[in-house]
Design a protein that fits this description.
The strands form 9 sheets. Strands 12, 13, 14, 15, 16, 17 and 18 form a 7-stranded antiparallel beta sheet that branches. The protein is elongated. The protein is mostly beta strands. Helices cover 7% and strands 46% of the residues.
Length: 456
C-alpha cells in the first residue's frame, strides 16, 4: 500500500500534535492492509491440468495494445504501446529489460505474447539456438527484472531439446502461446527428431497453471499437415484452444482442443505466411494471412460456421501479420516489403477496414520484421463508497477492491471526528485501473489553530 500525506501548515505545539496523529493513523493503515480476495473457478481441464485461480478484479476499462519485435543486430526485444485502444502510441521503442542476458543468448524470430489476466502479460521467444525463454510483466513490472527464464522441461545441457518417452525432440520454429484464463498458459512449438530435413515433424505442447510451468511436454500431433512457418494458437475461453498452421499445399490447417485434441482439418485458402489469429469472445475466431499476391486475406468463425475467404488487399507485406482484438476493432500490424525498417498498421472501423497507416521506423536497419501484437486490459477495480468511514475501514475497503494507491489530505475545519473520510475522488462506483490513486480528504480532528475539535 502506497500512501501519500498532505497536511495544512500548523503552528507551535499543535503542529507537533498533528504529526503524532498522522503517524498513528499511518500505523493503523499499515496494520489493516489486506490482499485482494481470490476465489476458485473450475475449468474444463486438459489431462494433468490443475485448477485456475481467478481474481475478483476485472478487465473492464480501455484496452492497451503492445507491439514487440526482435532486433537482429542486438538480439534484444523492443516494444511500444498504446493505452487508449490504438488512438495514440508511445513515441519511441522501449527495450524489454534484458541487460544481463548470457553472452550466448541472442533472440531470433517472432516473439509470442499473451495476456492471461488483467494487468499481466507473458512473452515467450527463442534464441538463435532455438532455446525457449520467457518473462512476465505484471502491472508494469517485468519479472525477472533484467534476465529471462528458460521454459521448464527442456534438457539441462541442451535447452533447445526435450525428451518425451525417451525420444529427444529439437525445437525449430518460433513458439506460440495462448491462455484460457488467469495463470493458465499453453505453449506450442514445432520440433524434429533426427534432422530438420526429416519428413516427419512434430507439434509439441507444454503448459502452466496458476502461473507455474508444469515442466511436462507432450506430442500433440506427428506428421501433421503443416509445412512452413510456425504454429499459431488462441483460446476463446476455459478448456478451449485453437491452433492454426500453413499447410504443405499452402492451405490453412486448423485443429482444436475442447477436452481432447481434434485432428487437423483444412480450411483452404492460399496461405503464404504464418497465420495471425485472434478471438473476439466465446465461439469467435478471426484469422488473417499473407496471400499469394503478397497481400492480406481473412477468414473467420462465428456462431458455429466458417465464413468464406475474403481478400482485403494486395499490399506487399514483408512479414506475417500479427493480429489482436479489442471490443471496438480488430488490429493488424505487419512489415512492408517496399519500405525497409517500417511497420504498418490497419484496423476495422464502422465503415470496414481502414487503409494501411505507417507505424513508423524502428531505426535498427534489420530489413523485415516479425512483430507480435497483443491487446490486454490494465487491472481494473470498482471504487467502493468510503464516505464517513473511519480511515482504517476506508483503507481496508480500498485494499480489498485492489486499490493500493491512496493519497490523504487532512482537513482542519472540524466537520467530523478525527479520521473520518469527508470526500473521495474518484467517486464511489467508478471503474478505474487498479494502479490509480484514490484521493481521500480526512478530518484531522483539530481546527485551524491546532486546537482539538469539540463535538457536542
Amino acid at each position: 500500500m502506497h500512501i501519500r500525506f498532505w497536511r495544512p501548515p500548523l503552528k507551535g505545539w499543535s503542529a507537533a500534535r498533528h504529526l503524532v496523529v498522522s503517524a498513528a493513523a499511518l500505523a493503523l493503515v499499515v496494520g489493516t492492509l489486506t490482499a485482494s480476495t481470490l476465489f476458485s473457478r473450475p475449468v474444463t481441464a486438459a489431462p494433468r491440468q490443475q485448477q485456475t485461480m481467478l481474481t475478483t478484479q476485472t478487465s473492464s476499462g480501455t484496452p492497451r495494445l503492445d507491439v514487440f519485435y526482435t532486433d537482429y543486430d542486438s538480439g534484444l526485444i523492443f516494444h511500444r504501446w498504446s493505452d487508449d485502444d490504438g488512438n495514440t502510441w508511445t513515441p519511441s521503442w522501449t527495450l524489454v529489460p534484458s541487460s544481463t542476458l548470457p553472452s550466448n543468448v541472442f533472440f531470433y524470430g517472432r516473439p509470442s505474447v499473451v495476456s492471461d489476466s488483467p494487468g499481466r502479460l507473458t512473452i515467450v521467444t527463442r534464441n538463435t539456438s532455438n532455446s525457449l525463454y520467457y518473462k512476465t510483466e505484471s502491472n508494469g513490472v517485468w519479472s525477472p527484472a533484467t534476465t529471462w527464464n528458460n521454459v521448464p522441461g527442456t534438457l539441462p545441457s541442451f535447452p533447445s531439446k526435450v525428451s518425451i518417452t525417451n525420444v529427444t525432440y529439437t525445437f525449430y520454429s518460433d513458439p506460440t502461446v495462448s491462455s484460457w484464463g488467469p495463470g493458465r498458459l499453453d505453449l506450442f512449438v514445432y520440433a524434429y527428431v533426427n534432422s530438420n530435413l526429416d519428413t516427419t515433424k512434430y507439434l509439441l505442447h507444454t503448459w502452466a497453471d496458476n502461473s507455474v510451468w508444469s515442466g511436462q511436454w507432450e506430442v500433440v500431433a506427428s506428421n501433421p499437415a503443416y509445412g512452413w512457418g510456425s504454429p499459431s494458437a488462441v483460446s476463446w475461453g476455459p478448456g478451449r484452444i485453437d491452433l492454426f498452421a500453413r499447410g504443405t499445399n499452402n492451405e490453412l490447417e486448423h485443429m482444436w482442443y475442447d477436452g481432447s485434441w481434434h485432428p487437423w482439418e483444412s480450411k483452404g485458402g492460399a496461405v503464404f505466411s504464418t497465420p495471425g489469429v485472434t478471438s473476439g469472445g466465446v465461439g469467435s475466431l478471426q484469422i488473417l494471412v499473407g496471400n499469394s499476391g503478397g497481400g492480406l486475406s481473412f477468414i473467420q468463425f462465428n456462431n458455429g460456421a466458417w465464413s468464406s475467404w475474403v481478400t482485403i488487399d494486395s499490399y506487399p507485406l514483408g512479414t506475417a501479420p500479427t493480429v489482436a482484438d479489442t471490443p471496438d476493432a480488430i488490429h493488424v500490424i505487419a512489415d512492408n516489403i517496399s519500405q525497409v525498417d517500417h511497420l504498418y498498421r490497419r484496423w476495422t472501423a464502422s465503415s470496414g477496414w481502414t487503409s494501411w497507416a505507417d507505424f513508423g521506423g524502428t531505426s535498427f536497419n534489420d530489413g523485415n520484421y516479425d512483430p507480435a501484437l497483443v491487446a490486454w486490459f490494465p487491472m481494473s477495480s470498482t471504487v467502493p463508497n468510503v464516505l464517513s468511514s473511519d480511515l482504517t475501514t476506508a483503507i481496508g475497503a480500498l485494499a480489498q477492491a485492489g486499490l493500493s494507491q491512496v493519497s490523504l489530505t487532512l482537513d482542519n475545519t472540524c466537520r467530523n471526528a478525527a479520521g473520518k473520510v469527508l470526500s473521495q475522488t474518484p467517486a464511489a462506483g467508478t471503474i478505474v485501473p487498479s494502479s490509480s490513486t484514490v484521493n481521500l480528504q480526512v478530518s484531522s480532528g483539530v481546527d485551524g489553530t491546532g486546537h482539538p475539535c469539540e463535538f457536542r
